[in-house]
């Protein structure tokens, strides 16, 4: 309870948080989620791993975890140095202040936010992920099992073969003048050449910037303009399900756009994926475009390693935030390497003979940390799937599980919900007896989907690791360690080693015990991003200024009486559609670019399969009439600016938008209209024109 000056200071702080994130209870979906959640959750439901499972688990009790966790937060330097020592370092890191191996300031009030781990240490993540295993005599182990879009089309690479492929590409890139620190853009489908490209960049110290191959030419061009690569790596095309997508055409369009902005990409290295789009059907620009298969195989299969500093940049990955422009999240080498490898090992209880399948695309962080780096650093065998879970039918995933005897299966709730709709039969048709551990990522998993995943897919035998983390965190933050403690459907359970979550109230104060609030993290961990590409100020204002002294995740969260964490969704203007982060501001700016659109406001709404759908309120220019054609062309504007995955599910015609007298859009009201909760609109008397609400309600189904 605040009084006097303290109260005013708290209020001023609250206002700044409100401005930045629209966090006030009166106008935030998140705040509502923080309060609403939990009501439908059956608190007492628990699942305990079997004795058989626990007998081989790396961490088999909460006590064992607690002892390790205590060490990890009381003496993070010693804890992480011990783990880091199991990797290869060309030169050991510097220690400072006696034996401090990391420096951190995450408090914007003190100084510039600056985080470093293992600084001065020289290593290479590609060397640790590949050469190290080959040198240890494991070169014959399968690294990747590739399953094509169509059943029966597959491929595999041993660690030795993978290393050779990576070396050839590394040699080519180096020969073409790509140097340490140079950015390389990658716009490719899930062929093995995608992780090969990432690893080749890492080998020569180049910074990879993978752009998900579902983004549009315009979105790709923005990302290219932000990181200025001289090289773009792509593919002629890809087949996904029954569709053919001509990726090279999209890249051509993007490169033309960047040229108009005065930037020229030197080389577009294109992998000919003949099964989708043949060479002769691919547009070509002599001098700029090069066929991958014409040049790369000519290079030697061995290539020198570029030893880089632990704090040298490994990659950029763009992600959506509250404002329009995507953020180039920057990860460095040493801490990310140690963190992704360690989280992978413990959260999936990884053993040497596991066969691991992660359904993520390398265009997102999960494909970086848990399809490529984390598993390969552990020497794991990884299944890579080019296709989609329901092609040719809803049993495809389980067919693949049986084909490769997958033991660890990691996917997103949206996939689980969509498969759940096809019933149990396509699952039960396949044995799945190899499965040991299941994983979930991308959004809160609703308890009913969790149940189905656990009971039907896992035959009530496989623990589910519901891993909460973000592009920014590099790796898992809150996650079960399978076998270590009972699971509760819908809870990500407890923090990983070294992670200190704090639930914070609107005044920026940490609250304890059973509570709900904004999820923050108290101290640095090795895998966290170091900055946003070219904009350290934005890094500080977005993540460290809202709650001073903390890293702010943007998520709401509740902690229960067992200390378990329950994530409740974003509290900022980010929507999570099928596990893909989309900024409402990005969709709005795409809509507003349409010549007949005057204004747009976008909110999320509950969607049975996607988790959240995109709901757009659109005000047209004076005199323009509503039509289905216009609706389609507005949706198309979003496809063009961002990509098909961001296409609005609903366009709601809005003669006016509900605004305060100062002109701020009251999204709370729009969210209620989108959710059809018309009796919960709340106080609308502060609107400049309360009449717009009735107009909107009238136009609901128009
Ligand atoms: C959400 C994906 C609840 C969350 C790895 C976060 C989750 C955002 C979970 C990050 C989970 C991810 N439970 N929510 N297990 N995993 N989220 O950057 O809102 O694409 O802030 O990283 O996804 O999305 P991103």
TrEMBL record:
<dbReference type="InterPro" id="IPR000873">
    <property type="entry name" value="AMP-dep_synth/lig_dom"/>
</dbReference>
<keyword id="KW-0547">Nucleotide-binding</keyword>
<dbReference type="InterPro" id="IPR032387">
    <property type="entry name" value="ACAS_N"/>
</dbReference>
<feature type="domain" description="Acetyl-coenzyme A synthetase N-terminal">
    <location>
        <begin position="65"/>
        <end position="129"/>
    </location>
</feature>
<dbReference type="InterPro" id="IPR011904">
    <property type="entry name" value="Ac_CoA_lig"/>
</dbReference>
<keyword id="KW-0436">Ligase</keyword>
<feature type="domain" description="AMP-dependent synthetase/ligase">
    <location>
        <begin position="136"/>
        <end position="530"/>
    </location>
</feature>
<comment type="similarity">
    <text>Belongs to the ATP-dependent AMP-binding enzyme family.</text>
</comment>
<dbReference type="InterPro" id="IPR025110">
    <property type="entry name" value="AMP-bd_C"/>
</dbReference>
<dbReference type="InterPro" id="IPR045851">
    <property type="entry name" value="AMP-bd_C_sf"/>
</dbReference>
<dbReference type="Pfam" id="PF00501">
    <property type="entry name" value="AMP-binding"/>
</dbReference>
<dbReference type="Pfam" id="PF16177">
    <property type="entry name" value="ACAS_N"/>
</dbReference>
<dbReference type="Pfam" id="PF13193">
    <property type="entry name" value="AMP-binding_C"/>
</dbReference>
<dbReference type="InterPro" id="IPR042099">
    <property type="entry name" value="ANL_N_sf"/>
</dbReference>
<dbReference type="InterPro" id="IPR020845">
    <property type="entry name" value="AMP-binding_CS"/>
</dbReference>
<feature type="domain" description="AMP-binding enzyme C-terminal">
    <location>
        <begin position="586"/>
        <end position="664"/>
    </location>
</feature>
<keyword id="KW-0067">ATP-binding</keyword>
<protein>
    <recommendedName>
        <fullName>acetate--CoA ligase</fullName>
        <ecNumber>6.2.1.1</ecNumber>
    </recommendedName>
</protein>
